[in-house]
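Continuing the series of single-chain predictions for the mutant panel. This is the parent chain; the variants come on the following pages.
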Amino acid sequence: MPLLNESVKDKILHAIETRTGSRLYKGANNLWRALAGRFDGQRRAQRIAELERIELEGIVNQEQNVGWVTPDRFEKFPTASLGRHQVLRGLQEAIGARTYLEIGIDNGASLSYVDMPSIGVDPAPHITYDLGEHIQVHIEKSDDFFAKPDAVEHFDGVPLDFAFIDGMHLSEFALRDFMNLEKLMSRSGVIVFDDMLPRNDLEAFRIRRTNAWAGDVYKVMEILEEHRPDLVLLPLNSNPTGTLLIANLDPSSRVLDERYDELEAYCTTPDPQVVAPRWKRRESAVDPATVIASRAWSLLRQSRGAADADALIDQAMAELRSIPTVS
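Parent structure:
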């Protein structure tokens, strides 16, 4: 029997995702590191080295606890006002999403509160929430799911408005998920990534060392900045490890497909990962509550089927780009 059941674990995670909970967690973690570093520094360094021998393909998303080490000290960054689930719920409502697709559904928590036709994809879910008949679950790898010609038949021809990527925490997988999803999205749609703002370098290693693990998904943000300047990219200062909102999607774009080989080489750069300070300190991040309250979503809803759709979308993108950073 697990030490904590799913409902208790969720309550703990949601508490950590609040502003006060996040502040307390950061303080406790940094205090623990200051104290523990004096006593177990050598043993911890040895364990970090041992964990490097984990075979990536041997553990699905590396979720099994094989003896993760305590985290490094977190960089200083503005305390977040919202957690990941609050961000997803707020955006789904603001956008007026007609359809939803999620990569990496885990226990089904973030699918359990959606009321529109939805699809969840995960090769090894352990669902503990009741999911309605409007939710279709595909137990397979996302690459295999997207290869099917009828992958989104469940939506019955309605465009995909909202997608969430929280699958394999390795950047080449996350990049492919984005490339495949964008081709299915409506022009007014939005894609959100999880784990885009690691709080220290160790949390971003490709081969997992810590219980709280973001992986090197942050590299996707750097790739999109350089190769897709047409996109609107908003890093969100959310708990615990940040999210990224992507808008102004272009389903016809094949830029990333044409450059994938060179991009994959960058993605698979081996550990140690060195994360740019602007990501760890969230210097370019915006407040998710401000994003959810933006006038942009009303404009995007109006654009659906409108004769002046392009003009409305341009106005919406200008609204999103004008949102100030939290730092």
